[in-house]
Amino acid sequence: MQLFSIFHSILIVCFVLLIDGTHSKLNLRYAILRQKQAAKSQNDTLAYQQRIKYDAQKTMKVVFYKNNTKTMETSAYDDAYDLSGSGCSPSDKFAIVLHGWIQSCSDAWALSLIERLSYYRGGCVICIDYSVVASSSYMWLYTYFDVLTGAISSIILTLFRQGFDPKRGYMFGFSFGGQLASAVGRSLRPHHIIESIDTCDMAGPGFDPIAVDHSKAGKHVQCFHSSRDKGTFVYSCHRNIMLGSCGLKQPSVASQLHLGSHGLCVDIYINTFDYPFYALNSTPPECFTWQKAARIPDGYTVGYEENFDSQITGQIFVPTSLHYPYNLSKKQLKLLAIGGA
């Protein structure tokens, strides 16, 4: 019966993946891998699972920032942190930053985001660095997804035990880190619910088309989408912000080939702190959607939101431009809307 169930699951995955030619081959590879992992995990002993978690955690670092200054770096395997040297207080707001594949907390975008969060949000910013595991192949990193989820959850629970309040918490994840942010948030429920979570072009390969309710990751979850080849097609966040052309491609990729539409997502997100990214009032006719479009007021802008408006949910379409900082003016947006009418 178990063998039939696994075979039936693989058949369903294969059928759905064939609908989308862009994702089919790559996602099939990782979907089968996940099925094998699920079968194998039933035979893993608790001791083996703990050893794997330890092997990953002992290479991870927890980096604390206060007022945009790195104040402390410690091992992720510690079960308690001496916060006296970090400048952080449990009464502070806190932000967690999770990077993607072949990245670290030292990447330019991570440092820029930490600076913007420090300026606009204040409090304590904590970047969790798992770059040792993330430096190998994507498939290798993918096999560690559950392990990293557990390790990061343990780190956050340690903070909660020291008095940090989930209601004052924010978490950001880019690409693979976006999937981790969602999984970590969901694993903390029902005892702890992070106030707000933002993700940028959450990774698709290996995760699609498995239906996941990302809205369960936190009280307010908004996900920015920017690419068709690396980003997920599961749009289940409270808000799904479709950047550029239907959330599938960015015009500026023509001048930013090294970033691609996927990499541009995090640059655009960081720019939303300082530049207005106006949203369209309706779904562009060329964009196909399974989800309801959000009802938004004129002049509505997207980005980091301190006070989340729960009345605005669904898909939000935000055109982007060819050149930095990649936003459109109100006038350009109006002309675009007229042209598409």
Written account of the structure:
GO terms for molecular function: lipase activity; serine hydrolase activity. Residues 49-209 form the Lipase domain. Residues 1-24 form the signal peptide. Helices cover 36% and strands 16% of the residues. With 341 residues, the chain is of the alpha/beta class. It has 2 domains: 1-43; 59-305 and 312-340, 3-Layer(aba) Sandwich (Rossmann fold). It has a 9-stranded mixed sheet with strand order 2-1-4-3-5-6-7-8-9, with helices on both faces. Helix 1 packs antiparallel against helix 2, helix 3 packs across helix 7 and helix 7 (145-161) packs across helix 8 (176-188). It is globular. Mean pLDDT is 86; it is low at 1-22.
Mean pLDDT: 86
End-to-end separation in angstroms reads 54 Å
Architecture of the largest domain, CATH level 2? 3-Layer(aba) Sandwich
Number of helices: 10
- Output the CATH class name of the largest domain: Alpha Beta
What structural category characterises the helix and strand content?
A: alpha/beta
Could you name the CATH homologous superfamily of the largest domain?
A: Alpha/Beta hydrolase fold, catalytic domain
Number of domains: 2
What name does the CATH topology of the largest domain carry? Rossmann fold
Low-confidence stretches: 1-22
Tell me about the biggest sheet? Answer: 9 strands, mixed
Please list the strands of the largest sheet in the order they lie side by side: 2-1-4-3-5-6-7-8-9
Order of helices and strands: HHHEEEHEHHHEHEEEHEH
Rg of Cα set: 20 Å
Based on DSSP secondary structure assignment, what is the total number of beta strands?
9
**Shape, per Cα inertia axes:** globular
Percent helix = 25-40%
How much of the sequence is in beta strands? Answer: 15-25%
Subcellular location: Secreted
Family: Belongs to the AB hydrolase superfamily. Lipase family.
Main location: secreted
Keywords: Membrane, Secreted, Signal, Transmembrane, Transmembrane helix
